[in-house]
Amino acid sequence: MTTHHWQAVALSREVTRHPLRVMYDGAPVVLFRAGGRVSALVDRCPHRMVALSGGRVVGDTLECPYHGWRFDAGGACIDIPGHIGDLPRCRVGRYHATEQDGAVFIARDLPDAPPYTHVLTGQSPICRLVKSTAQSRLVDVAENILDATHTHFTHKGLLRGLSAKRHRVTVTVTGGAGWVAASYTGEDRQDGLVSKLLDGARTKTIGRYRHPGIAELEYWGPRGLVLATTFHLRQADTDTVEGIGWLAGPAQGVLGQIKAMAFKPLFNIALAQDRRVLRSAYENARLAGGASPVIGPLDFLRRDITAIIAGELPAAATTPQQYQIAL
Ligand code: FES
Ligand SMILES: [Fe+2]
To answer: Which residues lie below 8 Å from residue 61, measured CB to CB, with a gap of 6+?
Structure first.
C-alpha cells in the first residue's frame, strides 16, 4: 500500500552517525548518516537477527554489534571479520531514503516524485517542525486532526473560546484518488487563544487527508493562507502512530517569527490533549470486544479516510457533499 510513497520517519537532526531505529508499518528500520547521506536498512542482521541499530557506523558501513559483520549503504555485506577468502553473498534489505524540509523520508520502491511536505513548499515559509506519538490507529489520528467538532471540548479555550457560542458554517466535502478534503466557510473568527494569535479573521479552514497518512489543516484569511499544519502520520507498530508535522506560514504573513515561536508550545499543548483522548479511545476500544464506533452526522471524513487507507476511491470523489452545521 505505502511502498511507492515517501513516508516521513524521523527529523533530519535525529539522524547522525549514531544509528537510529524507527518503526515503519511494524518493521524495524535503522537510519544512519554515512558518506554525507542518509541510509535506511532493515534493522535486523541477517546472521543472527540482532538489531543493527545497536551497532556503529564505521567509514561508510554499518557494523553489527554481535560478530561485526559490516553492511554498506545498499545493504550488501562487505566484511565478515575473521573470514579469509571470498565473502558469501549476503545482504540486508534496504529502503530508499531522502531528506526534505528537515525530515527523513523512506520508501520501499523508489517513488517517481520527491516527497510532498506541505502546501507552502518553495515559498520559503516560516516553518516549525514537531514530532508526536500517540497510542492509536492511523484512521483515528488522521480523523482527530481534521475533526473540527472536538475542538469545543478537547481544546476548550485553546483552539476555541470558553463560551458555548457557535457559528453557522457551510462544510463542503470534495475528494479524488487518494485524497478527501472538508472546507469550512462562514466562521469569521474562532475565539480560542491560538486563533487570537493568528489575528482571528478567517475566510475558510480546510482539512485534508492525503495518502499515505498526511493530515493537513489550512487556515485562510482575507489576505491568503495564514497557516498550514501538515502532519505526516504512520502506523509505527500495531498500537502506535507517529507523526512528523510542519507548521508553516508565509514569511510576510501575520505569522511572524515571534508568533511562530509562541505558536509551537500552544500547538504542543493541543497535541497532548489529543493524545489523551486518543489513548482513552484506543484502550477502551480494545475492551469493547469488536464493537465498532458510531459514525455520527458530523463525522464528514471518517468513511473516506478509511476508504483511502484501504486503497479505494473515496465517495467524495464521485459525490461531493455540502452540509450546514453550527461550529
Ligand atoms: S548477528 Fe550480526 S554479525 Fe552475527
Ligand atoms: Fe485535536
So the answer is: 34, 70, 71, 72, 73, 78, 79
pLDDT class of 280 with cuts at 50, 70, 90: very high
For the chain, what is the mean pLDDT? 90
Q: Tell me the sheet residues that pair with 38.
A: 33
Mean pLDDT of 75-85: 96
Residue 1 pLDDT exceeds 50? no
Instruction: State if residue 83 touches ligand 1 by the CB under 6 angstroms criterion.
Output: no
Spatial CA neighbour of 234 closest among 31, 10, 4: 10
Percentage of residues of the chain with pLDDT beyond 90 = 71
pLDDT tens, residue by residue, 146-173: 999 998 899 987 777 667 678 899 999 9
Residue 231 C-alpha cell reads as 502532519
Which one-letter amino acid corresponds to residue 98?
T
Q: Measuring CA to CA, which residue among 12, 237, 7, 62 is closest to residue 53?
A: 62
Find the helix or strand (DSSP H, E) in which 228 lies.
strand 224-237
Nearest-CA residue for atom 3 of ligand 1: 67
Q: Hey, what domains does the chain have and what are their CATH numbers? A: 7-107 (2.102.10.10), 126-326 (3.90.380.10)
Ligand 1 geometric centre to CA of 46 (Å): 7
User: Can you name the residues that pair with 233 across neighbouring β-strands?
Assistant: 243
- pLDDT category at 125 given cuts 50, 70, 90 is confident
Residue 90 Cβ inside 6 Å of ligand 1? The answer reads no
- Residue of 129, 137, 165, 136 lying closest to 12 (CA atoms): 129
